[in-house]
Amino acid sequence: MSRFFRGGDDSSTESSSDEEELYSGSEEEEEEKKDQDVDDSSSDDDEPEAAADSGSDSDGDAKKKGVNRFLADADSDSSSGDDSDNETQAKVKSAKDKRFDELEATVTAIQNGQKINDWGSISNELDKLNRQVIKQIDGGKAPKLYIKCIADLEDFMNETLAKQKVTPKKMNATNARGLNVVKQRIKKNNKDFQAQIDAYRKDSDDFMESDEEEVPAPKVAKVRFQDLTAEQGQDDDEGFATVGKGGRTLLFTPESIFKHLRTIMESRGKKNTDRLEQIKIMEKLYEVAVTPYQKIRVLMTLVSARFDLGSGAATSMPLEHWKAAEKELATLLRVLETEKDHIVIENAEEWDDDEKPPTLEDGAKYIRIPGSVVSYIERLDDELTRSLQSIDPHTSEYIERLTDEGSLYNIIFQGLLYYEMLRKDASLEVPQESLNRIIQRRLDHVYFKPSQVVKILEENCWKEVPSNVDSEITPRDPSHDAGHLLNVLCNYLFENSDGIIRARAMLCQIYFLALHDQYYQARDMMLTSHLQENIANFDITTQILYNRTLVQVGLCAFRKGLVYDAQNTLQEICGSGRQKELLAQGVMIQRFNQVSPEQERLEKQRQLPFHMHINLELLECVYLTCSMLLEIPLLAQTGSSPDVKKRVISKTYRRMLEYHERQIFTGPPENTRDHVMQASKALAAGEWKKATTFVHSIKIWELMPNTEDIKTMLAKQIQEEGLRTYLFTYAPFYDTLSIASLSTMFELDTRKVSAVVSKMISHEELAAALDQVTETVIFRKGVELSRLQSLALTLSDKASALIETNERTLEHRTQGSANAFNRKDGRGGNRGGGQRGGRGGARTGGNPQRQAGGTQFTGGALGAAVRG
């Protein structure tokens, strides 16, 4: 022992100090053991050892140090072998106590932040506090210290905000940011603990002193039952059987089907419910189902359970379960078609007897089963839409998923036939709304498609129907085209529905007509429907359909060569700059407005699948081209006259044009917008061929049907507008101008040139006369106002308008007193037209009759181009 426990040169002073430490250490150990209700007899046995150690300094010191260094035991109560001989023994804390200490320290930090009004640190500590309290929530209740902290913090925040409103004080950026963060998070956070917070605010002392804690229910160990069974619970080849709760084997028999269905229906929506296991059980129940009633009940419950898999807001239904639900729904419709005496209807009563299925009573024709086939079809359609929204449209997966639309359309058609069959019997009282809803779903799948695609869909769906079955609404007739189908479906909804369904049917028909170049019919239906007056009162999806229809009508007008109608129709959508949002083809990035997560989720749910999109680049190209053909002649006509310049057809186009003119260096056009701007500049300078080249080189025209016809129409329009622009710009420099010269210059027929000039003269756009004998245009020279004179007249008009405004204000304040206008200067309340020196009252249109020509065209967006 002396080899290992040899002491050094220890003095008596060290020995006495060690003895004192030993004595104090033994007392601490006794107190700890009393608190823990542990027998402290071992500490009494240590006193002789302590006395022995004190009697022998060298040996005791050597033994103490040896044990302290090498032979320390956690369970040893010997003072000579304990670490407390040199240091005070450290108190061991449980993990729960440590977490509570951390929570208490964080609460103290928040309170200190409140004292100095440091919202930056309060925000950081609040995040830390919320992370810590997650581990300490017991039985749904949070620690009382946490409840007290967040309740006091909310009160302090409200008090600070109230002070800011009364006496605003400028806070630094960190403090203001922290206050805003706390304001956003504290209200949302406190909702989860509102009951405890209310109890604390009701009586804080009683809440903090009460020791009653909610005892959480004992957790039952989860047992995962393997579903590897054969029918009726018999062992399969591998020796497995289906085991339910309680360890009992599940028996799948026709008699037990309704009991299993009742159990499954009661567990729907509850937590910890294994939906996939329920689906497997119902699949086995369908295998043992014998009667039609059993099959119908199992299929309806099975389809509903599959829809529960896609109940989340951000997740769509799994593909394999969607296909399975589609097959099961088709099977359900076939069973209902075969078994005429079993019907699924919304107003049927629930059958509660699981032991005895319902039977046909005397005089009864049907066994009524509560349910809604149209609801299943709508949900299946919605799940397909959500799936298409979540898939990248530029992948083959999207194309493969889109092929499921054909089978879905077949189910919609079969559901329509089923409801037509029910409607034949007036005693069933089938609601008309159900039939309207399913017809609307059929419309939603065909209104935006070309007629060739609709014809293929119709042929495929009729192949799935027996030859002896026909539809009353849309009879079987191969000679009927898609237009006839749309017309029949929409007319049926016009007669048998109202409100949103009727409005949507009308919009679908207008969209289809515009898509197939029947512009005048679509325009007349749009005007007679008066939907533009009350569309704001409809739901958002109907407003989106209205916007899509409006855009399609505008594109149809453009294809017909009606430039003015196209621009006027597209102005409302394209002029706003929010085409993507208004057509539900994307979510706009909000720069200054913070969108809540709920609103953002709703925006994403409303987005249309990619195959329903209208090409936004093509839409912008059409809009800018139409604006160019209207704005360039207008700019040439008005010139730089300040009183006429207020007339603007397209603010969006003017803004782009001005931006393009401000560019120091203009390179070759790269995109659609550049091509249109370059064409505008060339057209304003009279270079119509160059403008035509720029417009024809836009590649987006290839997406339109009959591309060559579109380009020919655009070339013709540019020629005519180039002629009008030339006449507006250079008329002051001519006395007479030959029609033949204009015909040669713009490569137009002389009759066409004469028609354009005559139209300009009749509309008083051009001060000239047409001599049909000599085929010349004779211009009339009038007194042209200089720019200074125009500005002077504008100033006088504004001054007279200001005087009239002041007089009206004075009359209003003096309550119409006659003395207020008895003035020597003769300016009374009733201003005659002759008191302005013969100029005839207030000027509303600028110059009395502005002469045609372009001498005033010295500025504006395209002034430099014309002067060059």
Automatic annotation (TrEMBL):
<dbReference type="InterPro" id="IPR000717">
    <property type="entry name" value="PCI_dom"/>
</dbReference>
<dbReference type="Pfam" id="PF05470">
    <property type="entry name" value="eIF-3c_N"/>
</dbReference>
<dbReference type="GO" id="GO:0003723">
    <property type="term" value="F:RNA binding"/>
</dbReference>
<dbReference type="Pfam" id="PF01399">
    <property type="entry name" value="PCI"/>
</dbReference>
<feature type="domain" description="PCI">
    <location>
        <begin position="610"/>
        <end position="784"/>
    </location>
</feature>
<dbReference type="InterPro" id="IPR027516">
    <property type="entry name" value="EIF3C"/>
</dbReference>
<dbReference type="GO" id="GO:0001732">
    <property type="term" value="P:formation of cytoplasmic translation initiation complex"/>
</dbReference>
<comment type="subunit">
    <text>Component of the eukaryotic translation initiation factor 3 (eIF-3) complex.</text>
</comment>
<dbReference type="GO" id="GO:0033290">
    <property type="term" value="C:eukaryotic 48S preinitiation complex"/>
</dbReference>
<keyword id="KW-0963">Cytoplasm</keyword>
<feature type="region of interest" description="Disordered">
    <location>
        <begin position="810"/>
        <end position="868"/>
    </location>
</feature>
<dbReference type="GO" id="GO:0031369">
    <property type="term" value="F:translation initiation factor binding"/>
</dbReference>
<feature type="region of interest" description="Disordered">
    <location>
        <begin position="1"/>
        <end position="98"/>
    </location>
</feature>
<dbReference type="InterPro" id="IPR036388">
    <property type="entry name" value="WH-like_DNA-bd_sf"/>
</dbReference>
<comment type="similarity">
    <text>Belongs to the eIF-3 subunit C family.</text>
</comment>
<feature type="compositionally biased region" description="Basic and acidic residues">
    <location>
        <begin position="88"/>
        <end position="98"/>
    </location>
</feature>
<dbReference type="Pfam" id="PF26569">
    <property type="entry name" value="EIF3CL_C"/>
</dbReference>
<comment type="function">
    <text>Component of the eukaryotic translation initiation factor 3 (eIF-3) complex, which is involved in protein synthesis of a specialized repertoire of mRNAs and, together with other initiation factors, stimulates binding of mRNA and methionyl-tRNAi to the 40S ribosome. The eIF-3 complex specifically targets and initiates translation of a subset of mRNAs involved in cell proliferation.</text>
</comment>
<dbReference type="InterPro" id="IPR036390">
    <property type="entry name" value="WH_DNA-bd_sf"/>
</dbReference>
<protein>
    <recommendedName>
        <fullName>Eukaryotic translation initiation factor 3 subunit C</fullName>
    </recommendedName>
</protein>
<feature type="compositionally biased region" description="Gly residues">
    <location>
        <begin position="829"/>
        <end position="844"/>
    </location>
</feature>
<feature type="compositionally biased region" description="Acidic residues">
    <location>
        <begin position="16"/>
        <end position="50"/>
    </location>
</feature>
<dbReference type="InterPro" id="IPR058999">
    <property type="entry name" value="EIF3CL_C"/>
</dbReference>
<feature type="compositionally biased region" description="Acidic residues">
    <location>
        <begin position="74"/>
        <end position="86"/>
    </location>
</feature>
<keyword id="KW-0396">Initiation factor</keyword>
<dbReference type="GO" id="GO:0003743">
    <property type="term" value="F:translation initiation factor activity"/>
</dbReference>
<keyword id="KW-0648">Protein biosynthesis</keyword>
<dbReference type="GO" id="GO:0016282">
    <property type="term" value="C:eukaryotic 43S preinitiation complex"/>
</dbReference>
<dbReference type="GO" id="GO:0005852">
    <property type="term" value="C:eukaryotic translation initiation factor 3 complex"/>
</dbReference>
<dbReference type="InterPro" id="IPR008905">
    <property type="entry name" value="EIF3C_N_dom"/>
</dbReference>
